[in-house]
Specification:
This protein is of the alpha/beta class. It has 12 helices and 11 strands. It has a 7-stranded mixed sheet, sandwiched between helices.
Length: 292
């Protein structure tokens, strides 16, 4: 199955449209890699799958073979029309024409409401399987992980640079907020490296396929997740400063003094810089500083 470069070009030409850079449109044309992504998701008959940026629908076609329902979100008017014409009569398919993100940082309520509604009749999981548009990948993933609607697993294609940051270890230059927040919420696994020629138009960078499994048994309560995000972003805004200097600015005097006297754990060192703090240490700090 799948679509070749020629197939996609013919569909776009028939609709009188072309790939738009502002939407980060790079169509995956390697059928083997596409099937590898779907296989890694381990979709079951009762699952509801969120697809962001379905484009001309080759991945959608694969997903509909195994999912209970597919909810596809497409911002491009021309591509929305192509998907509507291809799959509009399928009762296991819902197509939403809009930006997946509201205010460029939060998943649109309409999308989350639709996913939960479809899940009610199927009793399976809600998951993400998508070749993510470059522009939305990072804020989308972070909001899905921090949100209250459980969406897991998350199987997707992103720029290799983003994938490397999601997997980064403490003490490295690329370790930062997205590394910490992702690893605090989920187990991250690389599925495959994807070369530029697997896409059309050909991007200037490599890509990668990842699977994120959200941790449910040790899930962080909403207040802790929110506190963690605040601390991580606040400290990494001044990543060359020590944690002592950063936290003295971020916390009130009494809270900071209590933290100096009673650190979250014996492993904590306020003289370390943010990139030296491990994910478990960040979680311990967020828990300690979250009001019960």
């Amino acid at each position: 199955m799948g679509q070749t470069k020629r197939d996609i070009q013919a569909l776009l030409a028939g609709a009188g449209i072309r790939p738009l850079k502002r939407y980060g449109q790079h169509f995956l044309i390697d059928g083997n890699l596409m099937r590898k992504l779907v296989s890694a998701a381990e979709i079951q008959a009762g699952d509801v799958v969120l697809e962001v940026g379905p484009g001309t629908g080759p991945l959608t076609e694969e997903l509909l073979q195994s999912a209970g329902h597919v909810v596809a979100v497409e911002i491009d008017k021309g591509l929305h029309a192509i998907c509507r014409d291809r799959f509009g009569t399928c009762d296991r398919f819902t197509l939403i024409h809009r930006d997946i993100l509201k205010r460029k940082s939060a998943v649109a309520a309409e999308v989350l409401d639709t996913l939960r509604e479809k899940q009610k009749g199927l009793n399976g999981r809600i998951m993400l399987v998508a070749n993510l548009p470059y522009q939305v990948a990072t804020p989308l993933l972070i909001d899905l992980l921090l949100g209250d609607t459980l969406i897991s697993p998350l199987c997707f294609t992103v720029q290799a640079e983003v994938a490397d940051r999601l997997l980064a270890e403490p003490g490295t230059k690329i370790y930062g907020p997205i590394s910490i927040l992702t690893q605090a919420m989920a187990d991250v696994k690389k599925i495959a490296r994807v070369p530029p020629e697997a896409f059309w138009p050909v991007p200037k960078v490599d890509s990668a396929m990842l699977r994120l499994d959200v941790q449910q048994h040790d899930a962080l309560p909403t207040p802790v997740r929110q506190r963690l995000a605040e601390l991580v972003h606040g400290c990494f805004n001044h990543r060359r400063k020590t944690m002592r200097s950063n936290l003295r600015t971020l916390l009130d005097v009494a809270t900071f003094q209590e933290l100096e006297t009673n650190p979250p754990s014996s492993e904590w060192n306020l003289s370390d810089r943010p990139e030296q703090i491990t994910v478990p240490q960040w979680i311990a700090l967020a828990r300690k500083l979250t009001t019960p």
